[in-house]
Structures are given as structure tokens and as C-alpha cells.
Amino acid sequence: VVQVVDCDDEGPVFTSVPSVTRIPENTPIGGQVLQITAIDGDRGVNNPIVYKILNGGDGLFQIDSKTGIVTVAGKLDRETNTDGGSSGASSYILEIEATEVGESSGYSPPTATTEVTIILQDVNDNLPRFRHSTYQAEIVENSPVDVPVTFVATRKSKSTELATLFQPQVYDYDQGTNGTFTLHLE
């Protein structure tokens, strides 16, 4: 009778990998994002698995090496910072490695890698802003009701392009309905 015994020669196998995960951009530091699960690829051998992030995420995410739970490690912001800081991102691709922890036989431990995508969902966290701090307008003093106000360039120029630059312009970095606003004259 010859009995073939499995040796530790197969890498880990991922059993649970959410390919795309969506989280709000205001998820707090330490908030759980997703969980990766892998098992030993050898039959009858159940070596423990350790996880680590190889690439991606700009240091904003971390993984528990034993459980495979990915959490937020830094402040997330989907929009580009307007104060000259670094720009935000709306999605991140993390390359995650699973490594078997077993008896050292002089060889590198078996590993496997996978990728997950994290998409930041917009939260209404930016205020609308005017492009310029002041605007100049003209109107005839005895104009009837509902006559449009004409905005003019503060510099002497007959250029239509320059006059257009000085019309009220408002922007909001939030996405979709979070980026809508109304203007009121006070």
C-alpha cells in the first residue's frame, strides 16, 4: 500500500474577495471597508494565512494581517482640495497579498495576490464658492421690474471674454445633487 501525503507546495486560494466596494467618503478612521479571506491551497494542510497590502491606497487603508479586514487609516476626501493640498481620488485599487505561515523549508513561503477596488461615494461636504470675491454690475436707476442686471468687467476693456470672466460664477466640488445650489440676492 502506497499512501501519498500532500506536501506544502500550493499557494493560498482566495475564497472571499469583494471585487468592488463602495463606502462614503466620510467613513471614519478605523471604519471597516471590506474583508478578504484565503485558505491554504494544499489539501489536508491548514497553515494560517497572513495578509498585507502590497500597493495602492496611498496609505489611506490598512489590513489586519490575521483577519484580512481592511479599514480606513487616513482621512478620505473624494474631491480635490481647493486650498492647494493634494488632490482627492474617487477610487482606489489595492493589491493584497496572502502568505501561508508554515514550516520553513528554506524556500519562500507560498503567496497569492488579488486586487480590490474601493469607490468613494460623494457626501455633501463642500460649500459652493464664488470664483471672485466681488462683482460689479450696472442698471439704469429708473428701470422697470424684471430688467436684467448687467455685470461688467472692473477693468477698462471692451472684450466680451473679459466681461464674461466677471459674471458671477459659482462652483461646488460635490458630485450630482450634492453639487447643486441656488443663488439669492440679499
Give a structural overview.
The protein is 3% helix and 33% strand. The protein has one helix at residues 160-165; strands at 13-16, 20-24, 32-35, 37-39, 49-55, 61-63, 69-72, 91-100, 111-121, 129-130, 136-138, 150-152, 170-171. The model is unreliable at 81-86 (pLDDT under 50). With 186 residues, the protein is mostly beta strands. Strand 6 (61-63) and strand 7 (69-72) form a beta hairpin.
Beta-strand content estimate: 25-35%
Structural class: mainly beta
Number of helices: 1
Low-pLDDT ranges: 81-86
Largest sheet: 4 strands, mixed
Residues in helices, as a percent range: under 10%
Terminus-to-terminus distance: 94 Å
Major sheet: order of its strands? 2-9-8-5
Radius of gyration, Cα only, in angstroms? Answer: 28 Å
Order of helices and strands: EEEEEEEEEEEEHE
Q: Please, what is the average pLDDT?
A: 82
Total beta strand runs? 13
Shape: rod-shaped
How would you describe this structure in keywords?
three-stranded antiparallel sheet, 3% helix, 186 residues, four-stranded mixed sheet, rod-shaped, mainly beta
Give the SSE map.
Blueprint: E1 13-16, E2 20-24, E3 32-35, E4 37-39, E5 49-55, E6 61-63, E7 69-72, E8 91-100, E9 111-121, E10 129-130, E11 136-138, E12 150-152, H1 160-165, E13 170-171
Parallel strand pairs: 2-9
Antiparallel strand pairs: 1-4, 3-7, 5-8, 6-7, 8-9, 10-13, 11-12
Summarize the structure in short.
By secondary structure, the chain is mainly beta. It contains 1 helix and 13 strands. Helices cover 3% and strands 33% of the residues.
